[in-house]
Amino acid sequence: MYGEDGAQMRTELAALLRQHRVMHRLAADSSAERAEVGQQILRFRRTLVVWCAQAIRVAQPLTFPNIPPRPADPFRATNERGAALSELARALELARDQATTPAASSTEIATPSLHDAVEHWRLAAQAAALAEHDTAPDLAVHLTAAQARTIAGDVAAISQALVVLDRRYRNTPDWESLAGCNRLGWAALATALDVSLGQPDYSVDQTGWRPRVKPIRGPGKPGVLGVLQAEHNLLVRLKSFPNAMNLRLIVDSQRLLTSQLIPFAERVDPHLAEKWRARTATYSRIQRELRNVEGRLGNGAGATAEAANAVSRMKALPSATVIEPRMLGGFNTLFRRIDERISDVLETGVERGAFVQRVTVPRLVNCEGRLVHPVRERFVPVGRAADLDVIRTAREQLRPQAERAAASPDASRADLHAALIHRPPEKGTQSDVPGL
Q1: 384 vs 347: CA distance, rounded Å
Q2: What is the DSSP string of 177-226?
Q3: In degrees, to the nearest 5, what angle opens at C-alpha 435 toward C-alphas 429 and 436?
Q4: pTM for the whole thing?
Q5: Closest CA to 140 of 125, 126, 155
Q6: Nearest alpha-carbon partner for 307 in 205, 407, 232, 245
Q7: Predicted pLDDT of residue 408
Q8: Do both 188 and 63 map to the same domain?
Q9: Residue 68: inside a domain, yes or no?
Q10: Is residue 294 scored above 80 in pLDDT?
């Protein structure tokens, strides 16, 4: 995710900013070896610059300046908005395009270094290479304006760090300074000031590329782990659309599993047990309402089998089993995601016409001499999703509420800003005394 990769970049750059006397740290047997280390650092820096240039262009269309615009010039056709961010984007592209040192290869990024400073650069470049997936244009279309401003602020802080480090490493043999370094520094500072005037949205840390979730194969795990394994596999198998019959079986399995977990949760977390009682009641209601829904489109046999495994393994647990809070939290996370997926299945089934509704058709009763006249029923397509009781129940009770967005930045952002204004201790202070 963007939060993990961005935090690693900021952490490693903050560690480099706190390193002074760079020539002493790059000490080698000869000037040629020191130049070789400097060239390796330049390749890692190029990877960081490439990501910054890509990320700022992705955030630029959604970013609006917080500084009030100047009055429009009547002698100009347009009045440019967001000049600071646009200038930063141009400065980063200039530094990227005019650099003669190539970016680090995948093998070089993946190979650890014994040199402390080079290792910090390598880890920062590794995070930048991974972050290219998090800020790709196809994923960035889901960003909001506030999230884009947060990315712009992160790029501005990283650009400032690169400018400071460029000045610090300039005495390295064969060192190549950033093209337009002064321009880049001022543009990064102006963008950081512009972004700080607004309210950033740090929920952007939860966006980005995520690895594909795969089922846990092999024989069933013993005890509670086996139940978690089956429930995890059920969530993965639910990616395929189930038919109405299998959907009813899956819903019933969630009702049974949740009701059986309540006594175990009461021993550790009564509040969670109460929450699961409400979930059991919700699934009982959905199960009743699904009796009037039919449809043969879809399959879902694999998900149904995993649901049966979860219930059978749960019944086999001894009553004296103590489930740890960490495992209860795992069940709660899986329940929340399964609830969301079942809600999506119900909504998608109505939109695709995969579900039909049972209705009662009026009929004339003739005098046939029978005491009981059966009710005539038909299955008809669903006109609107809200016409189904099960859809209303899923929207009001089953679908989990959206998680609150993060209201504060993580520690890496504050650490990087502190490192940018960090100054080395003066000579003669206690920190310069050997051994202290």
Answers
A1: 10
A2: PPTTHHHHHHHHHHHHHHHHTS---GGGGG-S--PPP----SSPPSTHHH
A3: 45
A4: 0.69
A5: 155
A6: 232
A7: 63
A8: yes
A9: yes
A10: yes
- Nearest CA to 47 out of 130, 104, 119 is that of 104
Cα 33 from Cα 38, distance rounded (Å): 9
Question: What do you get for the CA distance between the two ends of the chain, in Å?
Answer: 39
Say how many domains are in the chain.
2
Same domain? 294 vs 324: yes
Instruction: Please check whether residue 35 lies inside any domain of the structure.
Output: yes
Residue whose entry in the numeric block shows the structure tokens 């910054």: 52
**Residues 264, 140: one domain?**
no
Residue 190: inside a domain, yes or no?
yes
358 phi and psi angles, rounded to 5 deg: -80, 125
Supply the pLDDT for residue 435. Answer: 35
Per residue in 378-434, pLDDT tens? 777 877 777 788 888 988 888 866 555 455 677 888 888 888 887 776 665 544 433
In terms of residue numbers, what domain contains 130? 2-201+409-428
| DSSP letter, residue 60 | G
Torsion of CA 60, 63, 65, 70, to 10 degrees: 60
Buried/exposed 51-88: b ≥16 CB within 10 Å, e otherwise: bbbbbbbbbbebbebeeeeeeeeeeeeeeeebbbbbbb
